[in-house]
Amino acid sequence: MRSAPWTSYVAVGDSFTEGLDDFRDDGVPRGWADRVAERLARDVPNLHYANLAVRGKMLDQVVADQVPIAERLRPDLITFSAGGNDIIRPQCSPDSVAERFETALARLVGTGAEVVIFIGFDVRRIPVLRRIRGRVATFNELVRGVADRHRCRVVDLWSMTPLSDPRCWGADRLHLTPAGHRLVALRTLEVLGVPVTENWRDPWPEADPHPWLHRRQEDLVWARQYMLPYLYGRARGRRTGDGFVPKRPELTPLRVSVEIRGSGASQAAT
Q1: Residue 16 lies in a domain
Q2: 237: three-class secondary structure by DSSP
Q3: Is 91 exposed, middle or buried (0-12, 13-18, 19+ CB in 10 A)?
Q4: Domain count, the chain
Q5: CATH number for the domain including 118?
Q6: Which strands form 248-253's sheet, in the order they lie side by side?
Q7: Three-class SS of residue 256?
Q8: CA dihedral (57, 59, 63, 64) positive or negative
Q9: How far is the CA of 11 from the CAs of 49, 80, 131, 168, 197, in angstroms?
Q10: pLDDT truncated to tens, each residue of the chain (270 aa)?
């Protein structure tokens, strides 16, 4: 494994890595990957950073569109998260997705970069998605084995208990809030061995209680407004990322104006 500090970082993936729903004032997503880059840039002022991730992309699209660019850029550090949009589709085979994931990972490792991958979220608290919790867990274990074979660092999102708090999730319950992205950034930096001033394990402040009936009503509204239209659109071939392009397609210097500790979406880098 390459030793820190890294001088160049490329983020590869889908909406999770692009940064939905952690938006800056100008509407551009920030997200955990930007937050990680901002912290790295505090130690390496000339850090070059690219974020190739685009919302809604399936694993094969990530491999076709982003992996060749990462191979060309040859950074010191790569984060790779993909396959989540595949796993939630009906009739998906975790084994098939994991095999294709490993093929892509081998290409990224072959660049000589330090590669970090992610174990998916525990979906037991998300209506509809909790029905595929076993499939997600199977895929996670397959990915863990892939990481072991290729000697990659792993960020285990499944075991991050604070992420089970509803305040980590946006209205669609598929994308993290700024607070959720902050926790993932802190965990990723911990895996990288980069010192931070906060602990992602710290418990949340006590939340206002929600009556059972109110929670069930929220679940019904969410399923009607977000989950069912998403699944229907996928079945008809619509892609969330159609028309979107990477926000940082090339390795360019990152100039940081705030630290990672901020949980909001203030201007942090240019």
Answers
A1: yes
A2: coil
A3: exposed
A4: 1
A5: 3.40.50.1110
A6: 153-156, 114-119, 77-81, 8-13, 48-51, 248-253
A7: strand
A8: negative
A9: 8, 6, 30, 21, 23
A10: 445 689 999 999 999 999 998 999 999 999 999 999 999 999 998 999 999 999 999 999 999 999 999 999 999 999 999 999 999 888 899 999 999 999 999 999 999 999 999 999 998 877 667 888 999 999 999 999 999 999 999 999 999 999 988 889 887 778 899 999 999 999 999 999 999 999 999 988 876 665 545 555 666 666 666 666 666 666 666 666 678 899 999 999 998 764 444 434 333 443
Helix residue spans in 118-270 (DSSP H): 133-150, 178-192, 212-222, 228-235
Tokens matching residue 240:
């969330």
Q: Give pTM, 2 decimals.
A: 0.86
228 occurs within a structural domain? no
Strand extents, DSSP E, the chain: 8-13, 48-51, 77-81, 114-119, 153-156, 248-253
Q: How many CB atoms lie within 10 A of CB 69?
A: 16
Using DSSP, state whether 39 is helix, strand or coil. helix
**Cβ-Cβ contacts under 8 Å for 156 (sequence gap 6 or more):** 119
| 249 within a domain of the structure (yes/no) | yes
What is the domain extent for residue 164? 8-201+245-253
CA distances from 119 to 9, 29, 97, 156, 269 (A): 20, 22, 14, 5, 27
Sign of the Cα torsion 181, 184, 188, 189 reads positive
> Taking Cα atoms as reference points, which of 166, 162, 159 lies closest to residue 203?
162
Angle at 25 between CA 200 and CA 57, to 5 degrees: 70
Query: How far is Cα 231 from Cα 98, in angstroms, rounded to an integer?
Result: 22
CA distances from 18 to 3, 39, 154, 199 (A): 26, 17, 19, 23
